[in-house]
């Protein structure tokens, strides 16, 4: 996320929604309603990134006379979080790097995005798996097989055959590195679909915590990057 841009947008929104009484029990925001509504479309997406649970809080903070008071308070909290993020990390002892779903390979994140936004994390990971499979099928021109079988054949050490293209992560120089890289890709893809994707589609499972789902989504992002970057080897 472009933090400086986000902070500017939050400040603009806070200024636009500033409220003053005009007398007789009436009041108004600093900017026209249509301007605030347009800003809110962007601001709420910033909230999603900075304070994911903001929707649970916003209605509790609204007032009867100022309909934007809830969003304004969330914006103030989000701005404080962004402005003091490094200070908080340094002083609270958590200076680990962030893992952002939005920076993952688009095959994974685009598949997961809409479900992720509504908190359906396990379903979002499954949707990412479906998207990565479909994009891989498109690249290989294979709709006759999918998932584990698809990647086993895609990264096979065998030469390509008619209607059976291969994906090459490096030129075939008959080295141990070439063999290891492609056998590892097969094993990794197999694990992604057998251990992550398949159980969720076969039996009811509890919802995933967001951090665990993010780890699983990252696995499919890695696979997507390998497939996307691989050279297509055909007859």
Label the structural class. Answer: mainly alpha
Provide the domain count.
2
Morphology call: elongated
Q: Order of strands across the widest beta sheet?
A: 1-2
Continuous helix count? 10
Layout of secondary structure:
Blueprint: H1 3-16, E1 19-23, E2 26-29, H2 33-50, H3 54-61, H4 69-83, H5 85-92, H6 106-117, H7 121-140, H8 147-154, E3 166-168, H9 176-202, H10 210-229, E4 231-233
Antiparallel strand pairs: 1-2, 3-4
Helix pairs in contact: 1-2, 1-4, 2-4, 3-4, 6-7, 6-10, 7-8, 7-9, 7-10, 8-9, 9-10
Which properties best describe this structure?
235 residues, elongated, 10 helices, 4 strands, two-stranded antiparallel ribbon, two-stranded antiparallel sheet, 2 domains, 6% strand, mainly alpha
In short:
By secondary structure, the chain is mainly α. The protein has helices at residues 3-16, 33-50, 54-61, 69-83, 85-92, 106-117, 121-140, 147-154, 176-202, 210-229; strands at 19-23, 26-29, 166-168, 231-233. The protein folds into 2 domains: 3-92; 101-233.
Architecture overview:
It is a single chain. The chain is mainly alpha-helical and 235 residues long. The chain folds into two domains: 3-92; 101-233. The chain contains ten helices and four strands. A hairpin with a 2-residue loop joins strand 1 (19-23) and strand 2. Helix 1 (3-16) crosses helix 2. The longest helix has 27 residues, at 176-202. 26% of the residues are buried.
